[in-house]
Design goal:
Layout (H helix, E strand, L loop, with lengths): L1 H20 L8 H31 L21 E7 L5 H8 L6 E7 L4 H13 L4 E5 L6 H10 L7 E5 L9 H5 L8 E10 L6 H6 L1 H17 L9 E4 H6 L9 H11 L3 E12 L5 H21 L1 H6 L5 H12 L4 H18 L20 H6 L9 H12 L3 H9 L5 H28 L22 H20 L4 H18 L4 H5 L3 H16 L2
Parallel strand pairs: 1-2, 1-4, 2-3, 5-7
Antiparallel strand pairs: 4-6, 5-6
Length: 542
Amino acid sequence: MFSLIVFLWLCAGFYFTPRILALLIGPENIFAKSAVILFALLLNLFWFYGFYHLVIILFSYRKPAPVDFNANNLDGMGTPKVALLYTTCNDFRDEAVLSCLNQDYPDFHTFILDDSGDEEYKKRIDAFVCKYTSRVTLMRRRDRTGYKAGNLNNCLNRISGFEYFSVSDADTILPKDYIRNLLPYFNKPEVAFVQSRQELNPAQGSAFAQGLGFQIGLHCDNYLSTKEKYGFVMFYGHSALMRLDVLREIGGFPEVATEDLAYSMLIREKGYYGVYAKEVTSLEDFPSTFRQYRKRNEKWIRGTAECLFKYYPSFLKNKNISRLEKFDVFVSALSLLLSLPFLALLLLVGFILPYYFSHFQFQGPMFRMPLSYDNSLIKFAVNVSGNFFWRWDFFLMLIIMVASPILPVLIRILRRPGEKMRYIVMFTFNFYSMQVVSSLDLIAYLISGRAGFPVTGQEKDAAGNEVSNRRATVFIEVLAAFMFLLISVTTKNIWFLVFAAGTAIGTLILKRGFENRLVRIFAVVPLVILAIIIIFITKTLQ
């Protein structure tokens, strides 16, 4: 599969890159020529990820191989003792803990790992524990050192007699047969954990969550299922059954922001691996608000960067891990860090290169606004010809790259028109609204070297500061939106208008909330502008 991705990427690179490098032949200064080289590199980077998404998703539709054992058969395993660890920090959910208690398995115990600072949540948890004293053990610690990983390690270092354990987040709803159906997957001594499938909890009432939460199941069905066959299976932080002896062999969970990725790499270095159980589905919530979504995004970006710097070098050097897995881990992790390179590409295309090269113009209204040119938009749209750099093949490639991450949604829309249009609206808004703040999150980590662990369900972090809604961050976003708008008007480049709208609307929704119906309408604007761009593209193809 990855060979096909690389092959398609190389074909595209050899086909398109010479056109770009032709700009190096000329009298322009070294800065201009450096910008051309950087543009070619960034463009090829994003073409790679376009093929990456496209091929992985297409492979996910292949008929899966039959499971080589009976997933309901516990013969030969006995009934090993299982610890169910429910983690919470000011976000306790009764129904989630009850899903741990209601397992149809004879030998398990539930532990509530409470890091809450809010007294109301502590009282609720205490009352719940009193009600189920014989079946639940409450564990608290003096501080929150080590984030979620520290909380887990604190518990696992104090318990004994358990062979397996499972991690649940505060919103995780486990199916009744969760333990019984996952245990048989440990049919090989190298299996360290079994990751269950995850799906959006349909009972979640948030309009924001219902708009974007579809991607939880989409990721499992179209990415995790493919990687289970062709790549690296990662622990996703919850809804997985795990071997306690393997965890102790690596010294416990790494106490970093993304302990799940770090754990997955460390156990692989020891010769163990994880498997994916698509037959077992756990439910979870999607962030209920845009602010909470930004917090989670901040954790993922900073935490992923931290793991790449701290743990990937030893993972890369390990001779017992296949090159395919090393490649998969790096490419998957890097995919979360592309906002900053994408903004750099945007500025190169729309501002820097046209400044130095008068013939470097993305012809047609896709990149130039027709407002001041002609009364007839159609006349302007079709009045381009003979452009050596950007022909129909380039625009076709661009559309494929843009559409590839949402290919499963497009397929479902073709089957049932209108069913997933809300997701496409939200996906488009989310993409354009998050580029600036995601870039700032990455820059903040690169400068400070600290990842942090903002709790999604909270409005403030442990220090009492708003996360991903700091005034400085929002101010920079507003400034960036104004800059995008200014560049769009002065350079007549309509592409920047989408980013201006997305970034500005993102700050508006952050302030007013997505539940405001009037504000929610604005989320459609980026998709509308993008649709207009695509319509105009069809008039310029040659």
